Amino acid sequence: MRSHDLGVRGEDLASRYLLSNGYTILERNWRFQKAEIDILAAKDGMLAVIEVKARSTRAFGNPEAFINRNKVELMRKAANAYVNKKRLNLEIRFDFIGIVFEGKKQKLTHMKDACFIF
Predict the structure, then answer these.
(1) Among the listed residues 46, 51, 44, 66, the one whose alpha carbon sits nearest the alpha carbon of residue 11
(2) Phi and psi of 4, rounded to 5°?
(3) Among 8, 57, 78, 111, which is most buried by a count of CB atoms within 10 Å?
(4) Alpha helix stretches (DSSP H) within the chain
């Protein structure tokens, strides 16, 4: 499976997971300058800025190992731009959803307020 297809599949699964857990999906693949936020979702007065990483194997490490400081900084700028553009009055939280697809099984991990991994 191509990495783009795997990414789309991962974001679809993450969106379904979030919806089933009471989140409202506000945007997917929102772009600002050089940044892209995979999912912007709201729940309980909180804006969750969500990075999704999907992998077909853990052979090269866990999905969260593929996020770097530059990506995080771009996400922060994009999140602030989104809040300002939409005039939202929500607290911002940065989440991470990692998905590993192994055959027909998948393992989804949702880390709320995941700045510690960045």
Answers:
(1) 51
(2) -60, -45
(3) 78
(4) 3-20, 69-86
Q: What is the secondary structure of 19-51 as a DSSP string? A: HHTT-EEEEEEEEETTEEEEEEEEETTEEEEEE
pLDDT tens readout for residues 56-107? 866 566 667 667 788 888 989 999 999 999 999 999 999 999 999 887 889 9
Q: Say what the pTM is.
A: 0.88
Longest CA–CA separation in the chain, Å: 43
Listed residue (21, 67, 64) closest to 76, CA to CA: 67
Reading the block at residue 70, the tokens are: 């530059």
| Domain around 43 | 3-117
